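>> received
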Amino acid sequence: MKPLIQSIKEKILIADGAMGTLLYSYGVDRCFEELNLSHPDEVFKVHRDYIDAGADIIQTNTYGANYEKLSRYGLEDSVKEINTAAVRLAKKAAGDQTYVAGTIGGIRAIKQNISLEEIKRSFREQLYCLLLEGVDGILLETYYDFEELSTVVKIAKRETDLPVIAQVSMHEPGVLQNGMNVNTALRELENLGADVVGINCRMGPYHMVSSLEEVPIPNNAFLSVYPNASLPNYEEGRFYYSAEPEYFGRISNDLRKQGARIIGGCCGTTPEHIRAVSKNLSSRVPVTDKEVKTKRCVQITSPPLKDKLIHQKVKEKRTVIVELDPPKHLDTSLFFQGVKALKKEGIDAVTLADNPLASPRIGNDAIGTMVKERYDLTPLVHITCRDRNLIGLQSHLMGLCTLGIHNILAITGDPAKIGDFPGAASVYDLSSLELIELIKQNNEGISFSGKSLRQKTQFSVGAAFNPNFRHLDASVKRLERKIESGADYFISQPVFGVEEMYQIHEATRHLNTPIFIGIMPLLSSRNAEFLHHEVPGIKVPVETRERMKNAGTDPVHTRAAGMGIAKELLDSALELFNGIYLITPFVRYDMSIELLQYMKEKAGKEMEAPYGQHII
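>> returned
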């Protein structure tokens, strides 16, 4: 049998279709790659069915046979065993008449925030397993993240002379997740040395054709295309694809006209779809020239902002933000009394939590718009990953931008089971790091799917900082990861000890990203004990709890004790941090106002002190 690359040069090859779709249809809904070991006959049968349908190339059942995916099933130590078995099954089915491509899928398609170093280690381990068993080529498929695909193509080309097929996946026709158009992406992969470049997954053949219409015939590589059968349907708890094989087969001629040298199938395709391609493909002679459509360029605007963003302000001057939670009910009178009073004190922004402790409140986008329009006060809106799926998050961000709300705090959110509706489900489609990355991508005018928003959002993206963990250095390392993701500033959980305040400053002084340090007045000894023992992420030092306990139960005395502690903390915060974050307990905005007035008095006295003796 000729080398694979020689056959690709001479004619159009038909590849196989989905492996997982067939196994899923058999009632299997677990790690498909493990079936190479536990159910080899089923995997072998799928290979043979595709070969009998006319496939010239079959791929190994190794799409997710990497350390990261297998670890989800406790199989991370079986990478070599699973990959080895997969190649042997495919080669046994292929005999001497069919090519075997060793498949490696994109990891960031299932785990977005994995580092490149982890990807490289995992990729090399799987690649070596496939190469040792003698595959005919390497198929890299379903890569939504172009950085990941570029990285692994370089590794593959260094490690083997076998043909490397590199395929990107798109959420939107013609554009990658990072906003790059498909033509540019395939050209870059060609320049990196990929022998075949192409597209697979997510879209049916119609959108695959339209995506390839703007891609010229490569100079030094060939084109491949593996469409899904169609968009999936969902019925009675199961996904299925309704596209008829005959339609799939007919449209393969349009894929040929776009220059495809390898035509296969992805999700939803079966041996019947591949048989239809083999039957309907009018010619195996490759197309070497075609008319390329030019995609109309969409202009992305960037409207001017009226005010500076919160992270810009805090780098220039002392900046004070105050949290005032939206009401849990529809009576907003007390809340807006607090907003009016805080505005009068000259705060820089009011922060609005997003259903804290998983208890529903008035939507902070609605209440934030009212704060901005009624009182000309900047709202700083929190967004949790708990309550919205990826679609809802993208829609919410577009809505906030449209409302003119530009200061955001991106957080994971407390799990739903601790709140008022414990039967509710937590979503967590994204982590807080991934949400930060999404917001920064929106700031480039690009949606999560890569589609143009036609306007750049202008969000100042804050991230949460919890300095109350036992190991502060671990918290700081997480801050560094959030900075890498694009965080513009941090807002901390409340700190209740002066010594802790200095430790936090020392641990974060190497960071250039500003921190708003949290200060929250305690109301009573009972309040202090509750916060310390029952609220996730909050620790109240023993000394502070003792002071509140010694204040007794008289509300006047406990308030005085709580405010005294808060003012001591404020003294240290003003010395160490440019950003002050006052957390108003239970809409007791009078306590926040007292702290604001204390700050003004302190600043006035320091301005009157002899030169060199003031702190600020």
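>> The radius of gyration is 29 Å.
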